[in-house]
Amino acid sequence: MKQRMICLLLVLALACSLMPAAAAASPAVRAANALYTMGLFDGVGQHSDGSPIYALDRSLTRQEAVVLLVRLLGQEQAALTAGTAQPFADVADWAAPYVAWAWQAGLVRGADESRLDALSPMDEQGWLTLLLRALGYDGADYDDPWTLAAQLGLCSGRSGGFTRASAVTLSLTALGLPCCGSTDTLLARLLAAGAVTEQEVAQAGMTGALSRRSLTAREIAAQCAGAVFFLEVYANDGYLRSETPSATASGFFVTSDGVALTNYHAVKKTMYAFATANDGSRYPVSAVLFADADRDLAVIRVDGGGRQFPCLPMRGAGAVTTGDVVYAIGSPLGLSNSISDGIVANRSRLVPQAGSPDPYIQVTAAISPGSSGGALINEYGEAIGITTATFAYGQNLNLAVPLDLALTVDLTAPGEPYESYFDAEPSPYADVAMYERYPAVPDFGAVIGAQQLAEGETEDGWFYLYALEDATEDALASYYMAMTEWGFTYAFAMDTSTMVFTAKDGSCTVYGSERTVDGETYYQIRIAESLADTAALSPTQFPWH
Question: Is residue 18 over pLDDT 50?
């Protein structure tokens, strides 16, 4: 396989593998049209109206790959004037000049001395390797071209198949990428070499690919903020039932179908999570594709019900340089879609006390608690890290996790259910006993482990008595947790033994207080079948919480 791969091309790329000329709006058709306009890609014939037949749904053959490679290298005219001398008997006449040039340049080898295996299909592994080499990465690893390709933004991982559609979309992407060690894009080099004209580039809608333009802070906010979301996590079903997040953080989408990145520490030991998008819509996190505690990375899937989310292209640490301008977007202190700016203070900062064996990106862009999981973005609008931590006793000393590990994850995998992934402990108050007369109210005695001594009717409900010595601070704190988990709102504490809870649906109010009956003092739970008038009460923090 290795010999067979090296035997081919050296071209460019883009990352979609949509099918043929069916939908005019598909990325593959747009890519084919753009390449055709610039004279870099041909069809296999013509429709009755004279438009090209791209045959995007079939495989790209090895000899077709050589032709595309030579054109992407800007060497078509050189190939057509250099003759057809090459040793392969199975190459078609129309492809012979291209194969001859590539063979003489040492770019292709045959399956054996007399056969190119010209009609065999090119695979994604080989094509990506050649595209990387076309971009100047001569040491691109044939065994694993996906990692480097993902770091550069050429693709997002392995695809499900490789066709002519895949080849043209990858090639178009490669045209807009900078060549190794340069700010010049591959398309800019083709233009400089005269392989394409400015008019062709403009007609193909590729003028923007001639250079990488730095974006202003306003443009970063406008183009990137929509891909960053506010993340609420719930440690167990109790927190979820009471609609009380156990923590908040940030995350950002890296695919339009809902795959997102955040920090491991933001989601560990949780059972549920919800992402609130920039427009206020809220979606559950349904699965975990990958998680690594040491490197503080979690790759999650947000269930958008078919919605297409804005997403950020990813770049690896190789695309980061000390001094680069960067922006951080996240939800510091719960303030969603906050943006700050700074520079890369150190592109490879080892911080042993942070626990990761890998270096962080140290930045001056401000982050705060709640920013964890947010996006660190370069001046081109590309995600280069996950905002993670800050040094509390310094100034502008902040850390982000680079995306190299995330770039190796299969983003098409279904993942594992979020609810069971992190081994979160169920709430101890999920299955508490309820009062028989009031099945929506947790039984005080059952929650604290105390015997009910008496009960009776009141004017507006019912009361229950318990031994006063059982109503310790720890016991009352446990009842508070149970009540809030089951949807009650804590309203007021006059002292450390008095409680007032109101049902969110307005069905009842639960009072807890000391009561003296016939000279004996008990702890009473009184349930009123109405909503208490708590307007005059000043809500305070529960003393045991």
Answer: no
Other C-beta atoms closer than 10 Å to the C-beta of 1 total 10
Among candidate residues 170, 142, 184, 140, the one with its CA nearest the CA of residue 318: 140
Residues across the chain? 545
Q: Which residue has the tokens 């079948």?
A: 529
Q: Which two tokens stand for residue 388?
A: 């993670």
d(CA 386, CA 228): 11
Roughly what angle, to the nearest 10 degrees, separates helices 164-175 and 27-37?
60
Q: How far apart are CA 508 and CA 95, in angstroms?
A: 83
| pLDDT tens profile 278-313 | 899 999 999 999 999 999 999 999 999 999 899 998
Which residues partner with 442 through β-bridges?
A: 434
Per-residue tokens: 121: 């299909």
CA distance 272 to 421: 10
On the CB side of 57, CA atoms within 13 Å amount to: 5
Residue 183 and residue 202 in contact, taking contact as beta carbons nearer than 8 Å? no
Domains of the chain: 2-210 (no CATH), 213-426 (2.40.10.120), 444-528 (no CATH)
Q: Could you give the angle at the alpha carbon of 140 between the alpha carbons of 136 and 144, nearest 5°?
A: 150
pLDDT tens digits for range 174-208: 998 888 877 788 999 999 989 999 999 999 888 88
3-class DSSP state for residue 386? strand
- Residue of 275, 318, 265, 271 lying closest to 295 (CA atoms): 265
Distance CA 378, CA 324 (A): 7
Run of H or E residues at 390: strand 383-390
- Which region, left, alpha or beta, applies to residue 305 given φ > 0 means left and ψ of -120 to 50 means alpha? left
- Both tokens assigned to 515: 């009561």
Q: Are 2 and 142 in contact (CB under 8 A)?
A: yes
Most distant CA pair in the chain: distance in Å?
A: 115
Backbone angles phi, psi at 112, to 5 degrees: -150, -170
Structural contact between residues 527 and 441, judged by C-beta atoms closer than 8 angstroms = yes
Q: Which helix (H) or strand (E) holds 462?
A: strand 461-467
280: left (phi over 0), alpha (psi -120 to 50) or beta: left
